[in-house]
Amino acid sequence: MKIQVKRKKWTALLSVIICFAIWGVLSSDAMAQNPVRGGTLTIALAAEPSGLDPTTNPSAAIKRVVHYNLLEGLLKVDRNGRVVPALAKSYSVSKDGREYAFVLHSGIKFHDGSPCTAEDVKFTFERLRDPKTAAPYRMFYEAIEAVQVVDSASLKFRTKKVDSNFLFNLARGDAVIVSKHSVDRLKSAPVGTGPFKFVEWKRGDSVTMVKNPDYYRKGIPYLDRVTFRFISDPSAQLAALRAGDVDVIAYDLAPENAPALGKDSRFKVLIGNTTTDVIMAMNHSRKPFNDRRIRQAITLAVDRKAVIQGAVAGYGTPIGSHMDPTNPNYVDLSGLYPYDPEKAKKLLAEAGYPTGFGAVLKLPEPYAYARRSGEIIADQLSRVGIKLIIEVIPMGQWVDRVFKNAEYDLTIIGHAEPFDIEIYARPKYYFRYSNPKFQELLKKAEAEMNEQARKKLYGQAQRMLADDFVNVYLFVYPALPAMKKEVMNWWKDYPTIVVDATEVYLQK
């Protein structure tokens, strides 16, 4: 089945003098369907987070549990991909594009009963910018020159330079507002402002949260209790759904199970899109992957169509660089370097490996798509003489060994963070890719106020990554949430990394 991808327009923030946005209390869909209040929901997720603090750990598994449910930022990306107010009820941007004024909703409280004020917002961003804090995405906030508290409910940001992505960055999962009085609890028992309050984390099993009676958006959430259960095996997920042990498989139903489950009148399957770019990363700090010819040979030896069919039952969308089709800056480069194993063999010989070489492919244990892709790719590369040893490791080890310390040859992972092409401008990122020309090009794109000119620059950046064969760009992971038919108002598309239960209800 071919997925129809909807392109979303990003707001041209810096082309206007002042813009105001007001966040509606309820979605139109929810209002139209007369939501039912009460009930409990159990949601299956494949990966258990290693902690619950999205401000110090880049794991997407953390954001899927806590973002929007327990912790919130000034802004959020809604289900339609728009950047809208969250804790902020309105904002404005100055004419020069360097000053942002925010007004908070009144009556916001943290889950411990303390008020959430502009001082907490200032503390949050000073902490994110502090080099002593293990903030994985500090670069998104380095443009901040100063945060000025005007009063308890309003504040201003002044930036050092024009940053066309500034408001989008405030909607990221690591930009959630925290209190200095409870920040030490984030990792294991987070205290936030969200529609649900943390109850307990049973390691190896589940995270449970309950309705926040003091939530500033009156009337929601509808559910009384939400439990995230961690079930890594796709067959076990499906069995749990059919047995009634879980109500929802959040977004990652095993693709091969989608057609049959969709025909069962007890359930429904939504087919949507994500921002997850699945890649086979190559470690540029290790031989022979520091040789462009080797990286090109590997790319040409991988048949992406076969990988997509075998790993995600044909649901994935092929890509040729690090950007997904939901981004308006996306350029389709999927056909730029097609499958060509004979040319791959010639490149290997030119690089001094006429009979190939051996390498280790480290795969994160929770993700079936990574394991399946790895098995298929290992077979494909063996045909050109590259013999891979597959090593499946727990996610915590993958983060420590691969992501943090680049102790790997090859790995397969989905990059779920939206609009994250900037990672290629970081030489110490786990690819260890260092290209001053790319870094300069990205700076120009981020500072460009004209939408069309900016799009052109991002297109050039995508082409540069493709031509340098930085990684093997495989496919965009599909969104396939599956649930009991009684579950209403679930997100079909995932334009950001969340599993948002705020407006979900059970139709009795």
Secondary-structure map:
Blueprint: H1 28-32, E1 40-45, H2 60-66, E2 75-77, E3 83-85, E4 88-93, E5 99-104, H3 118-129, E6 144-151, E7 154-159, H4 166-170, E8 196-202, E9 206-211, E10 225-230, H5 234-243, E11 248-249, H6 258-262, E12 267-269, E13 272-282, H7 292-300, H8 304-312, E14 317-318, H9 341-350, E15 357-364, H10 368-382, E16 386-393, H11 395-404, E17 410-415, H12 436-447, H13 451-467, E18 472-479, E19 482-484, E20 487-488, E21 505-506
Parallel strand pairs: 1-10, 1-11, 15-16, 15-17
Antiparallel strand pairs: 2-3, 4-5, 5-7, 6-7, 8-9, 9-10, 11-19, 12-19, 13-17, 13-18, 14-18, 20-21
Helix pairs in contact: 7-9, 8-10, 12-13
Key descriptive features of the protein:
2 domains; seven-stranded mixed sheet; 508 residues; Dipeptide-binding Protein, domain 3; disordered N terminus; six-stranded mixed sheet; Dipeptide-binding Protein, domain 1
Helix content: 10-25%
Number of helices: 13
> How would you sum up the global shape?
globular
**Main CATH class of the largest domain:** Alpha Beta
The CATH homologous superfamily of the largest domain is named Dipeptide-binding Protein, Domain 1
Please name the CATH architecture of the largest domain.
Alpha-Beta Complex
